[in-house]
Amino acid sequence: xxxxxxxxxxxxxxxxxxxxxxxxxxxxxxxxxxxxxxxxxxxxxxxxxxxxxxxxxxxxxxxxxxxxxxxxxxxxxxxxxxxxxxxxxxxxxxxxxxxxxxxxxxxxxxxxxxxxxxxxxxxxxxxxxxxxxxxxxxxxxxxxxxxxxxxxxxxxxxxxxxxxxxxxxxxxxxxxxxxxxxxxxxxxxxxxxxxxxxxxxxxxxxxxxxxxxxxxxxxxxxxxxxxxxxxxxxxxxxxxxxxxxxxxxxxxxxxxxxxxxxxxxxxxxxxxxxxxxxxxxxxxxxxxxxxxxxxxxxxxxxxxxxxxxxxxxxxxxxxxxxxxxxxxxxxxxxxxxxxxxxxxxxxxxxxxxxxxxxxxxxxxxxxxxxxxxxxxxxxxxxxxxxxxxxxxxxxxxxxxxxxxxxxxxxxxxxxxxxxxxxxxxxxxxxxxxxxxxxxxxxxxxxxxxxxxxxxxxxxxxxxxxxxxxxxxxxxxxxxxxxxxxxxxxxxxxx
Length: 494
Description:
Elements lengths: L3 H13 L2 H7 L3 H11 L6 E3 H17 L11 H11 L2 E5 L5 E5 L1 H14 L7 H18 L3 H25 L7 H15 L2 H25 L4 H13 L6 H13 L2 H16 L8 H8 L1 H28 L3 H21 L52 H6 L5 H14 L6 E2 H6 L8 H11 L3 E14 L5 E12 L6
Antiparallel strand pairs: 1-3, 2-3, 4-6, 5-6
C-alpha cells in the first residue's frame, strides 16, 4: 500500500517529467527562456529554421561578448535547437511551400508564461480575483442545478437588483465611481487571465497535430479493410475539432469569442479602459498587453484554424494516396536506416567522415531483353479525307454582305428621314423607328448599328424596357429587349 508521502512524491516526480517543468528545472533555463521569447513572438509564432539558427547564434555571440560566456552551454545554435526539439520545447514542421520552420510547443509556451509572471507583477489575492472565483463557482452551481424554482428565484433577484440600480441612476443621474486601486486590481486580474490564452491555444493546436499523427499511423498500419479506414478517417479529417478533448473545449469557447460582433465589442470596451486615467499608473508593457488582447485572441484562433486545415489536408492526402505495399516498403527502408545508424554510432567519432555511396547497387536480374521491340505500328493510319475548296457552292457578294455587319450609311439616312417625319413628337422611340424599317435594315446587327448611330443625335435613356423583333437574312425572327431610348434631331434643341 502506497503511503501519502510516497504518493505525493510520485505525483511530483511525474509532474517534473512534464517538458514545461523540465525546462524551468534546467541549469540553463534562463538562457532558454530568454532566447525563445526573443525569437518567437506573438507576431511571429513560426520562424524558418535557418533564420532561427542565425538569430540564436547572434544572441549567443552578444552574450559572450558581454562576459556571460561561462554561463552559456557548449554547442552552436543548430545543436541547441536540436536539443530543444528533442526535449519537446520546439516543434519542427514543413509548411505547404516546402519551408521548414520552428514553432514553440505548448510546454514551452507555458514555461515562458510562468517565467513572465514570476519576473513581472506578482499575483496577489485581491477583490477582483476573489470575485472572479466566486462568479465561476456561481456559474458552475447554476449550470449544475436543474431546479426550475431556484432558477426563477435567482433571475427574479437579478432583475430586482438591476432595476434598483437603474432607478438609482435615473434618480441621481450619476454612476457610482470605482477607486483607482480597485481598477488596478481588476486590470492585473485581467492580464493574468489573458496570459493563459497562448498556452491554451498552443495545446489545442498540438492536440490536433497529435490526432493527425495517430490517424496517419493507424492508416499506414493497414490492419483493417480499406473501406472502413477510408470512411472513418475521412470523417475524422472533416471533423478534426470534435476529435479531441481540447478541440471540443476550444469549439465551446469559440462560440463565445468567435463572433465578430463580440470581438468588436471587446475592442470598444478596451478603448474605454485605456482612455481612463488609472491606466497611467500601469507600466507601459501592461498597457500594451491590454490594448492587444483582441489581437492575441484573433492570432490564437488563426493558429488553431491553420493547424486544423493542415491536419485535414494531410489526412485527406494520405487517404487518397494510400498504398499499403509502398508504405510497408518505406517503413522497412527507414527501419534498416535506423538499424544501420544504431550500429554505426557507438564506434563513430565526432566529425568522422562517412564514405558516400558512389554508385547504386546493381539489380540482380536473370535476363534482359537484348533486342528492341518493333517500333512500327501494327497497321498504317487511315488516309486523310480529301477536301476540295473549289468544289464548294458559290456565294454571291450580296449574300455575303447580307450576313455581314450593320449598314451604317443606310441606317443613318433612314433614321434622319424618320426623325424628320416625326418632328411633332417630343421624342421618337428608337424601338418604333427600328420596327418601321424595311426588312433588310431590321437584322440583329442593324439594331446594334442603330443604337450606335443614335449617340450622334440627341438620345435619352428611359426607365422602360423596349422589345423589338429582328429578322435574320434567312427569314428567322429574333426578339430582343433593351433599355428604352428616345431620339430627337439636333435642331430641335436650344
